[in-house]
Fold these 2 entries.
Entry 1:
Amino acid sequence: KNQVEQSPQSLIILEGKNCTLQCNYTVSPFSNLRWYKQDTGRGPVSLTIMTFSENTKSNGRYTATLDADTKQSSLHITASQLSDSASYICVVSAYGGSQGNLIFGKGTKLSVKP
Amino acid sequence: DAGITQSPRYKITETGRQVTLMCHQTWSHSYMFWYRQDLGHGLRLIYYSAAADITDKGEVPDGYVVSRSKTENFPLTLESATRSQTSVYFCASSEFGTSVDTQYFGPGTRLTVL
């Protein structure tokens, strides 16, 4: 069964610190992986998307990595800010699939404290 | 630039009542989606539409009805609301609906069924 598992479920860090969120998937055949940021009370917003041939992609202080061999991805946040407090959702798409069958992780809730 | 909007933002109803959640997008995107988000489940697809008058079931369609007579609107109707349909509902749209296409989410509707 295609699944996406995220860890940790929640994380608290101090402002200015770095953190890394994990995403493991069993989706096959793999097409692409996307990270979304969801602020409290709002809809998710896309941060990055990576296809199987990409290892790293950055978006400002956010850097996503992908290891298609081990089926793992990580989202690294550098020099965290209070505005980074949000849930981060990993979404995987199977090759040949449409957006009607994306596989969503349950998300990691990040709290950045001053 | 309105983007994608949902109404109402909050709704309280009683078991057995019919409820319609509205979704409107100004981009003329072909694809539109309805998700529900519950604690412990992440986002789950209810229905999606590839174009006007074309709709398809997602992972959890039971108890819901959709229609799409115009490209920009995609209403979701709960024909006879149940307590298990208490959730936050998100509408999303994407231009082409391919696996690499970005989905843009609305702000959500928080529905409580008493």
Entry 2:
Amino acid sequence: AQSVTQPDIHITVSEGASLELRCNYSYGATPYLFWYVQSPGQGLQLLLKYFSGDTLVQGIKGFEAEFKRSQSSFNLRKPSVHWSDAAEYFCAVGAGGTASKLTFGTGTRLQVTL
Amino acid sequence: GAVVSQHPSWVICKSGTSVKIECRSLDFQATTMFWYRQFPKQSLMLMATSNEGSKATYEQGVEKDKFLINHASLTLSTLTVTSAHPEDSSFYICSAEGQGARYEQYFGPGTRLTVT
């Protein structure tokens, strides 16, 4: 069975600083990988996804992520964080098959200081 | 973009009663809907997958008689928590996926259930 690990429960960065959120997955085949952001009162929003091809994926809101098969990682990055980026971030893996079932990591809460 | 709503956003019920949560896709037809449960400061755990017009597929360890899921139309799925107990208190989230759009899941804002 697939699994996702987000080692950092809570990260604090200053506005304007760069950001990297870590995600490691466990899956036997090529995974489908996702990053979602959850803000209070709002549903999870998809930031970006990786299915195949270019291992550097661009997403919305200036985020990007890089798939590294050798490290089983899919870290999320942003060069300059804005205060509005403060939220909970979830990495997820899809196992393929007939259903689009997702397995989520435990999330990383991002706090942005001004 | 596609919008998924949930109703109610917050509900309190007494132990032993049942509560229904609705999940609606507002501007697209959702052939598949998913129900998740999220505990405080924890991840989303998939409870079940439902396809319109057929029985839901429950994940291992989820009581199908306790968590009744109905996906009667292409825009509506309901989750009924029967004979609720305090340990059922949680945040319930649905997501919806359109036909031919695998992994294009759109999430609802969630429903906070508190059982007293």
